Amino acid sequence: MYKLIVTYLLAAVLPLIVLSQEKERVLSKPEITVLDTADFSPVFKDSLNNYYFAADSISSDTISGSQPDSLVQEKPPVIEAPIDYNAEDSIIGSFDGQKVYLYNNAKVTYQQIELTAYYIELDLETKEVYAEGIQDSTGTLVQKPIFKDGNDEFESKTLRYNFETEKGIITDVVTEQGEGFVHSHRTKKISRDAFVLKDGKYTTCDAEHPHFYLHLTKAKVISNNKIITGPAYMVLEDFPIYFPRLPFGYFPNTPTYSSGILIPTYGEENNRGFFLRDGGYYWAASEYFDFAVRGDIYSKGSWGAKLHTNYRKRYKYNGGFDFRYNVNVYGEKGDEDYTPSPQFAITWSHSQDAKANPNQTFSASVNFSTSGFDKQNSISAENYLRSQKSSSISFSKKFENTPYNLSVNMRHSQNSVDSSLTLSLPEMTFSMAKIYPLRKKVRSGALKWYEKFGINYTGNLRNSITAHESEILKKSFTRDWKNGIRHNIPISLPSFNLLNHINFSPGFSYNEKWYFKKYDYTYVEGAEFDNPSSVPQSVRIDTLTGLNRVYDYSYSVSASTNIYGMFLPRNPQSKIRGIRHKMTPSVSFSYRPDFGAEKFGYWQEVQVDETGKSTYLDVNNGGIYGGSPGRGASGAVSFSLNNNLEAKVLDTAKDTTKTDEEQKFKKVKIIDNLSMSTSYNLIADSLNLSPINLRARTTVAGVSINMGGVLDPYMVNEDGVKIHKYVWNEKSGLGKLGRLTRANLSFGMNFRSKKGEKEAERNKDLIDNEKVLPGDYSQYSDFNIPWDFGFDYSFNYSGPRKPSEKGKITQTIGVRGNLNLTDKWRISANTNYDIMAGEFSFTTFNVNRDLHCWSMAFNFVPFGYMKSYSFTINAKSSMLKDLKIQKRQSHYDNF
User: Domain LPS-assembly protein LptD central: where (predicted)?
Assistant: First the structure.
C-alpha cells in the first residue's frame, strides 16, 4: 500500500516539474509569440487592432531569478524590424492573428523590401508572403506583384517569398539586368541576390514579347554581377535558330566597370583581305584611370595596334590619351608593287575643373598624325576628307589683384595634302590690361580729359618652324627655326566730340621686335645660290647672330558719326509707315615715317647683276613676326561708309478705327549692310589710292544673301604690273567704276513641312477621339511626318592678272535633305555639285530603319575616292554589338 501511494505521487509531481522547466525554457527563448501579452511590449498594430509582440521586449523582471545570468543566451529576433502593410479595399486577419489578407493595391514593407500587388497573403508565423494579380474585364492581368529590394526590382505573375530564408518561388518574372532583360516562367530565388531558372530568355529588347532572345535551357542570375547559362540558342521573331548553339554563356551585368576581353569585329576587304578589328583587353585599373589595348589583323599582312586610356580626378582634372599605329601592306611580298606603309596618330585631351584653381589653368588638345594616316586608316568619311589638323597645349595664369596675365602654349598645325608641318615650341604671351595712370584712386565728379589717357602692353615670345614632316627632325635649330620676341604698346589718347555729333579718337602705337639674327647680302659675279624667291641668285646670304631690335611706330586719328534720312509715303493708306536710311561714315588719318632710311639699318642696297643694277633687300627677311617695316613714309587717309536701310510696316491689316500710335507695326530690314572702304596715301609718289572693297548683306524672305567685290582703280600693263593710270580715264561704261579683281555671292535656303505637322496632329485626333479607325494612333504609320530640304549656292570670280587673260569663275551648289516616310523610316542625302566643272563631289545616300531593339542602316557613296556601300542589321545594345548581319564594300578597295 505504501509503495502504491508513493508511485501515484511521483506520477502526479513529475509532469508538473517538467512543465515548469519547459515554461522557463520558452520564456528564455527570444521568439515572436502571443502567449502572454502581460509580459510583452507590442511591436506593431494593424488596422484590425491585432497586436504583435517580439521576445526582446520582455520585461526584465519576468525571468528575474529564474536562471543565473551566465545561463541566459539572447539571440537576435527573426523579424528584425516592424512589418507595415495596407490595402485600398480590405484587410482581413485570421482568428489566431498569424495571417493577414490584403486586397486591391496591397502593399507590404519590411526594411528595404517593398511588395505591391492586387492580393497579398502575409503569414506572420512562417514569415512568408504570397502575392498575385487579377484579370480585368478584357482578360489582361493587372496589379501584378512588383518586388523591390533596394535598387533591385522585378514584376511577376505570382510570388511566394520567405523573409527569414530570403528564398522564394516566382512565376512569369521579368528582371532587368544591366542592359538586358531576363524572362522566366518559373524562377527560384535562392538568396537575396541570386536566382536560378529553367527555359528562360535573355534579351536586350524591352518589349513585353521580345523580338529576339537567347533561349536559356538553364541559368543562374546574380543581380548586379553576372549571368551564367548552360546551353543556349537564338530565337528570332519566335523562330528558333538551333545552329549555332552555344554550349554555355557568360554575361557580365555589373553596374561598375570591370576588366575583360574586348571582342573584335570581323569583315572583309578586297585589298587587305579578311580582318579582325578592335580586339584586345580592357583593364579597369582604378577609379582614377583605365587602360585598353586593341589590335587589328588582316589576312594579307596589314596590322594595327591601339592604346587608349582615360583618367580623372574629381574636382581637379580629366582627360584621355590615344596612340594608334598601323602598317598597311599593298601588293604581294616580292612583287614590284609591294608597299608597306607605316602610319601613326596621337590624340590627347586634358581639361582642368573650373573649381580647381580660378587663377591658373592647364589644358591640352593634341591631334597629330602622319599625313597618310587618315587616308589609309579612317573609317568615317569625315576623317577621310579632313586635310587640316592642329594641336594646342596651354597654360595660363592670372596674377590676382593685378592687371597682368601670362600664357604659355605649344602649338602644332599640319596639312595632309602637301605634308607640311608647323611647330611652335614654345609660344609665351605676357599681357597687361589697360590701365589709366593719371586717374585718381578716389574720384569725384566727371572724368577730366587727361584722365582718359590709357595704356596697355602685350609681349609675345615665339619659336617656330615650318617644313615637310619627313624633314623637320633634320632641320638646324639656329639656321632653320624662326624665333623672336615682340612688344606691342598701344596708347589710348583722350577722345572728344566735335559739334556734339562727330567723335574723334586719336591714338599712338609702338611696336618692337627682337630677333636673334639678321642677314648680310653680298653680290658674287657669276654665282647661282639657292636663295629664297625674294633674293636674286647672284647674292650670297650671310647670317649674323646677336640681338637685333626692329621697331616702328605710328600716329592716327579717326572721326565717325551717324547720318539719318527718312522717307515717308504720301499715300495715307500705305502699309509702309516709313523707310529709314542710316549712314555711318568714318574717316581716319595715320602717319608712319620712312623706316627704309639708312639710319634705321633695316634695308641694305645690294648690286644684283654685272650691269651695276641694285636693289634694296630686307635684312630681317622671313622673320617670325614679319620682315622690316616698309620703305617709304606713309600718310594715309582711310575712308569707309556703312549703310543700313529698313522699313516700318503694318503687322496686320490697317484698322481705320485706331490711331497711328495704336496700330501694330514691325521692322523689315531691306539692306542689313552695304559698305565700301578705301584709303589714299598722301605721301606716296604713285599708286596712292588703294583698292575699293565693297560688301553687302541682306535678307529676302528669310534667306540671307551675302555679296562682295574688290575694285582696283589702276590699270595694268601687258605683264600684269599696275601702272599709275586710273581706270575711269581709260575705260567707258561700267568699266569706269574700276577693274574688278574679285567678287563673290552666296546664299542658302531651307524648307521643312510645317503643314505635315498640323495634319499629323489632326489625324491623331481623328483616330483617338472620333474613332474613325479601329485601334489607337500608335498602331498606324502617319505619312505626314515632317521632312526638310536645303541648298547652298556659292559664286566666286577672280579677275585676270594680265589683259590677255580671262577671269576665272567657280560655282558650286550643295544639296541636303531628310525624309521620314514613317516614324521608323528615315532617308537622307547630301551632295555637292561643281557647276563649272560639271562634276559631283562628295555624295552620300543613307537609309535607316528603326526596328525597336534592332536597327537597319544602308549607306551608299556612289562615286569618288570614298566610293563604297554598307548594309547592316544589328542589335542596338552595346552588350550585343557583335550580333549583326553586315555586307559592305570598303573605300580602301578604291586605292
Answer: 227-714
